[in-house]
Write a structure and sequence with these properties.
Keywords: ATP-binding, Coiled coil, DNA-binding, Helicase, Hydrolase, Isomerase, Metal-binding, Nucleotide-binding, Nucleus, Zinc. By secondary structure, this protein is α/β, with parallel strands linked by helices.
């Protein structure tokens, strides 16, 4: 009997197993079909949007066209529309749902404010910030246009008055601003909206910063998702969604959430041709950073208005305070200031009594100051969308303005510990890191790529730090597989001894510093400079060869580095852009030089000669707003000599030709295979070659070279900002006196990447 039961039990178990396999197979098939269905729906929606976009929305023969022109001139005091404004207004007036993507300062607000003055009834504007709404109301009042707002601080009298107007046959207000929280949490307000709709007085729903609907966006707000019911509740009311930053996938998500599939999508180009984009290496010393800001504000931007964005309230207060001590009219702005102080700071800046606002991201939305000449990001923004939107507050008057980003490796982890809980927080942040680490591509092309656009080089017109030097340098790839395996071994060893490594501890272990227990047996310390180590680790993070893991403490969140999801096989190469190589000879002919300009961490600074810069010569000084001076300097340097650049590959025979230098190296102190520095020599100096501006590199050379015969020899280091060679007597890093060796054929040490 028991045998029969056992057999039946085994049979049932097998059947269950077969059913589980069938369920798994069907589940996978279902997921595949769901994905296919979503893709088809997207295609249908995209096609419908394309068909609408192909219509002529710029026509001026609509029944409302004359009225629109009249209101533009009489009410808004404008003579003509900006790109896409008339198309959007015509779409709204015809009852068409529409999503408008327009750069910051492009004139999005007019696209719903003007129709509100022409249409019967009330236009409801949903906006994320009370301060933004207050700015809009002030602008409307200055034009004598009827607008009001409702928020949590509105008095009972104001609320009752607005509710009465909403259900009036002839309302005295045309624009009503509310936050999404008001819609989501006030049943009384929603009931008034329904009555307004039934009376035919709900003319338009405008949703500002509509990207906040999407959880894939950089600024997702849960209450915005409530707006998904608006089309169902008020199907005949056209919806206008406005944003300055949204990718194609985010637009599709917005259409789905708001039930606007297949709506008209109008995109203005993201290119702001008057803005110059630059990335500057940021010092680890706060005092040096403030000195550089002071130099910018007192010289390049002297008397000009701007914004400095900081990571934290503490940073804002400290930097603003230090700048004031140095005679700069600077004030801090952040969310911890009360409303009166924020308003006072804002007014002081808009009236130009204050030169620069030092702010967190709390300062921004709705800022409408046309003459902002610079926006400086003192810390890494959390996403390309944030960077584009914040930097876009410069140059709204269409005159040239600068957008400068100070990049430092440590700032990556300050941000990552804040954003890793967001849906796409780390992906968005790493996109910003990739932008900073890029060595040669046009900054504009990187922004365009993120927003699914394609711009030509001509679209930049040398208005970014890379295009200023176009034609002189190109990226040089380096196989860093050996470096990856060294880091991998350190992290694997740390896991075995139950230790976790921050980025700083990882670099120290890699360089042979810090506690010996963190280094695996047989570890060979790298000779890379810290800046190069940081670059390699950042690139490995971006490509998922490394990953961040986060640990909560009662006071903070800590980022640790661990082995990533991607692995490297034993014989596999790992090519990363580690340097840029000069590709033009000094006589203007194309050619290749073996000397590298390590842009990522070693950039010349001809503009600054302060003592703080002597202590950190790897900092890159931002070029002038006008590219002519730097271009002229480059041209002058290029034409000073007709000597040929070094050829790309130095063979062993060429290196041995000057064995007199090599003989000065002991066997222990010759550069090993793991070093990123090689020693070469030449009897002719290639003019204007950049060898090294990094103290660490020079010290590395000192360690490798023990003795050099001094009979007629000199060790020279060239710098892009110098016309003369510098003789380093006894290998002084910063000689007090430069000694000219012009006209002499002397050996020269060339510091470059090893291939």
């Amino acid at each position: 009997m028991s045998a029969e039961l056992e057999a039946e039990l085994e049979k049932i178990t097998k059947e269950i197993s077969l059913i589980d396999k069938a369920i798994d197979r069907l589940s996978k098939k279902k997921q595949a079909l769901i994905s296919k269905k979503s893709a088809i729906n997207r295609q249908i929606s995209e096609k419908a949007s394309e068909e609408l976009a192909n219509q002529d929305w710029e026509r001026s023969d609509h029944p409302w066209s004359n009225k629109v022109k009249e209101v533009l001139k009489s009410k808004f005091k404008l003579d003509k529309f900006r790109p896409h404004q008339l198309s959007t207004i015509n779409a709204v007036m015809s009852g068409q749902d529409c999503i408008l993507l327009m750069p910051t300062g492009g004139g999005k607000s007019l696209c719903y404010q003007l129709p509100a003055m022409v249409l019967n009834g009330i236009t409801l504007v949903v906006s994320p910030l009370v301060s933004l709404m207050e700015d809009q109301i002030m602008a409307m009042e200055s034009l004598n246009l009827p607008a009001t707002l409702l928020n949590a601080s509105s008095t009972r009298e104001t609320v009752n008055h607005v509710h009465k107007e909403m259900t009036s046959k002839d309302p005295s207000i045309k624009l009503l601003y509310v936050t999404p929280e008001k819609l989501a949490k006030s049943k009384r307000f929603m009931s008034k909206l329904e009555k307004m709709y039934q009376m035919g007085q709900f003319s338009l729903l405008a949703i500002d910063e509509v990207h906040c609907c999407s959880q894939w966006g950089h600024d997702f707000r849960p209450d915005y998702k409530f707006l998904g019911i608006m089309k169902r509740q008020f199907p005949k009311v056209p919806i206008l969604g406005l944003t300055a930053t949204a990718t194609t996938s985010i637009i599709q998500d917005i259409q789905s959430i708001l039930s606007m599939k297949g709506c008209l999508v109008l995109k203005a180009s993201f290119n702001r041709p008057n803005l110059k984009y630059e990335v500057v290496c940021k010092s680890s010393c706060q005092k040096d950073n403030v000195s550089e800001l002071e130099d910018l504000l007192k010289n390049r931007f002297n008397g000009l208005s701007g914004i400095i964005y900081c990571f934290s309230v503490k940073d804002c207060e400290e930097i603003a305070s230090e700048l004031r001590k140095r005679g700069v009219k600077a004030k801090a702005y952040h969310a911890q200031l009360d409303a009166n102080n924020r308003s006072s700071v804002h007014k002081s800046w808009t009236s130009n009594s204050t030169q620069v606002i030092v702010a967190t991201v709390a300062f921004g939305m709705g800022i409408d100051k046309p003459d902002v000449r610079f926006v400086i990001h003192h810390s890494l923004p959390k996403s390309m969308e944030n960077f584009y939107q914040e930097s876009g507050r410069a140059g709204r008057d269409d005159h040239p303005a600068s957008c400068i980003l100070f990049y430092r490796f440590a700032d990556v982890f300050r941000q990552s510990t804040m954003v890793f809980t967001e849906q796409k927080g780390l992906d968005n942040l790493y996109g910003m890191v990739a932008y900073c680490l890029d060595l040669s591509r046009c900054r504009r092309s990187l922004i365009a790529q993120h927003f699914d656009e394609r711009w030509n080089t001509q679209d930049c017109n040398k208005m970014c730090d890379h295009c200023e030097q176009k034609g002189f340098y190109e990226e040089k790839l380096k196989n860093i597989a050996r470096e990856y395996r060294s880091i991998f071994n350190i992290l694997e060893h740390a896991s075995m001894i139950e230790e976790r490594l921050t980025s700083q501890k990882l670099i120290e272990a890699w360089q042979g510093k810090g506690p010996p227990k963190l280094r695996p047996p047989g570890h060979l310390s790298t000779t890379y400079s810290r800046e190069t180590c940081e670059r390699i680790i950042a690139l490995l993070l971006l490509e998922s060869y490394l990953k961040e893991e986060f640990h909560f403490t009662p006071y903070s969140t800590i980022s640790y580095i661990n082995i990533g999801t991607r692995r490297l096989s034993n014989d596999q190469e790992l090519l990363f852009p580690m340097s840029v190589v000069r590709v033009k000879n000094d006589d203007g002919k194309s050619g290749t030089s073996s000397t590298k300009h390590i842009k990522s961490s070693e950039s010349s600074s001809a503009a600054k000669e302060s003592s703080s810069n002597k202590q950190s010569q790897t900092k890159k000084s931002p070029p002038s707003l006008s590219s002519s001076s730097s271009s002229a300097a480059a041209a002058a340097a290029s034409s000073t000599t007709k000597e040929k650049d070094l050829k790309t590959s130095k063979t062993n025979a060429q290196l041995n030709e000057n064995s007199q230098l090599q003989n000065g190296l002991t066997s222990k102190q010759k550069p090993d295979a793991s070093s990123d520095l090689t020693i070469a020599s030449t009897r002719k100096r290639p003019r204007n070659c950049v060898l090294s501006s990094d103290e660490d590199d020079v010290r590395g050379i000192k360690k490798q070279i023990v003795d050099v015969e001094k009979s007629g020899q000199a060790i020279t280091i060239c710098d892009e900002s110098d016309e003369d060679e510098m003789k380093f007597d006894d290998f002084d890093i910063f000689p007090k006196k430069k000694k000219s060796v012009e006209g002499k054929k002397v050996p020269m040490i060339v510091v470059s990447d090893s291939d």
